[in-house]
Amino acid sequence: MVENGKELPLNDEVKKWSGATEIYRIVEGKKVNTLVVEIDIMDEHLESMTNAFSKALEKVKNNCG
Known about the structure:
The structure is a single chain. Helices cover 37% and strands 31% of the residues. With 65 residues, it is α+β, with helices and mostly antiparallel strands. Strand 1 and strand 2 (6-7) form a beta hairpin. The longest helix is centred in the last third of the chain and has 19 residues, at 46-64. The model has no long low-confidence stretch (mean pLDDT 84).
């Protein structure tokens, strides 16, 4: 797990997320670019990640326009 650009030490909280992945890609088009986000997480984290991603992606959208 990374926070503020630094890898966090392995503790019980970090171990909960072990194996989870996030992949970000920008696909360039002729008129628009598309941000593609792929996540692989455990079911128990799905709701919190969905809420966090909604807020984060709205910020990305606002900064790109």
